[in-house]
């Protein structure tokens, strides 16, 4: 029994090491990628031609919030031993709220971007005009408000509870709220985006084949990039969603420390993988699309030639001072 406990402790230490290495790597790579994504789809004209660029920017902003609030607190706790969830009541209330809302908002914006791309590829011109820049902004704002409201019980019910050792622990004051948050993150972050992404992937792929027969332009480039990104979301999201569902269903089952440690290790690996795929859109576009790299390079290294030229001084314009005559 003692050997099982030692092995369980070792596995828990492995999960901490994963957060320290892969988690920190994910934060750096995804933060840079999300910031670049915002810049690209706001500033580079060929890539911000359609309203779906706003959804991609919204997805990047949500991903920035999700990854940085979700991972930094854990990594700082592992590296320094300071748990800001237990130190700060404000962070205790806000951390989970922003993390869950940002993650769900990010994936839904990706789904809306896929829907917009599906409409763009449609041969029906009326469908192509359904989503405008104004309607895209309203959809993004409404989605953000909806998820902030859905997870609003977290800042209301999460608080500091004093322990016998006179320290404080951040936890929910209601068991129902724990279940509510767990099921909503499973539904809003894993299953709804996965189902919508799968359906949109199939529809976009079908219309994409028809679209390529009609013409080749920037819409085809963006569609290829989005199909690849949607594939990575499905590859990471479906296994993680199934395992999270298993954890919730079996949480009332009595488990040995060794089994619990193995399940926690698998959960951490799948969770970190979803963090990475959530914020890696820019790198996917960069490595998989030659046209994307071309537009980015042209914008960065764009040099505006000056029209100023050295003109000869006309002789009639030369004035000789009387003192020199």
Weakly predicted, low-confidence segments: 305-325
Give the assembly state of these chains: single chain
Q: Helices and strands, in N-to-C order?
A: HHHHHHHEEHHHHH
Q: Count of helices?
A: 12
Shape: elongated
Polypeptide structure, described:
The chain is mostly helical and 325 residues long. It is 76% helix and 3% strand. It has helices at 2-43, 52-80, 84-87, 89-121, 125-128, 133-150, 153-157, 175-214, 218-249, 257-278, 281-288, 290-300; strands at 158-162, 168-172. The protein has a two-stranded antiparallel sheet. It is elongated. The model is unreliable at 305-325 (pLDDT under 50).
Outline:
By secondary structure, the chain is mainly α. 76% of the residues lie in helices and 3% in strands. The protein has helices at residues 2-43, 52-80, 84-87, 89-121, 125-128, 133-150, 153-157, 175-214, 218-249, 257-278, 281-288, 290-300; strands spanning 158-162, 168-172.
């Amino acid at each position: 029994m003692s050997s099982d406990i030692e092995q369980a402790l070792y596995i828990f230490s492995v999960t901490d090491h994963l957060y320290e290495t892969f988690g920190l790597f994910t934060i750096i790579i995804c933060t840079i990628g999300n910031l670049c994504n915002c810049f690209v789809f706001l500033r580079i004209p060929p890539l911000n031609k359609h309203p779906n660029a706003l959804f991609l920017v919204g997805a990047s902003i949500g991903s920035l919030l999700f990854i940085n609030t979700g991972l930094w607190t854990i990594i700082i706790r592992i590296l320094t031993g300071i748990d800001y969830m237990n130190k700060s009541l404000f962070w205790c209330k806000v951390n989970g709220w922003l993390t869950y809302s940002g993650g769900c908002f990010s994936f839904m914006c990706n789904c809306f971007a896929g829907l917009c791309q599906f409409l763009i590829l449609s041969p029906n011109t009326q469908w192509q005009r359904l989503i405008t820049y104004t309607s895209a902004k309203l959809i993004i704002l409404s989605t953000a408000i909806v998820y902030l409201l859905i997870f609003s019980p977290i800042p209301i019910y999460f608080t500091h509870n004093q322990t016998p050792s006179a320290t404080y622990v951040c936890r929910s004051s209601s068991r129902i709220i724990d279940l509510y948050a767990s099921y909503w993150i499973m539904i809003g972050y894993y299953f709804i985006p996965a189902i919508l992404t799968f359906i949109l992937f199939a529809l976009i792929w079908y219309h994409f084949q028809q679209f390529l027969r009609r013409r080749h332009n920037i819409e085809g480039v963006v569609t290829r990039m989005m199909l690849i990104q949607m594939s990575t979301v499905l590859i990471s999201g479906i296994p993680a969603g199934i395992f999270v569902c298993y954890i919730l269903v079996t949480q009332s089952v009595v488990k040995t420390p060794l089994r619990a440690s193995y399940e926690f290790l698998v959960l951490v690996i799948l969770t970190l993988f979803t963090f990475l795929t959530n914020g890696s859109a820019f790198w996917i576009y960069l490595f998989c699309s030659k046209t994307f790299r071309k537009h980015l390079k042209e914008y960065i290294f764009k040099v505006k030639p000056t029209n100023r030229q050295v003109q000869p001084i006309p002789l009639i314009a030369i004035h000789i001072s009387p003192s020199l005559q």
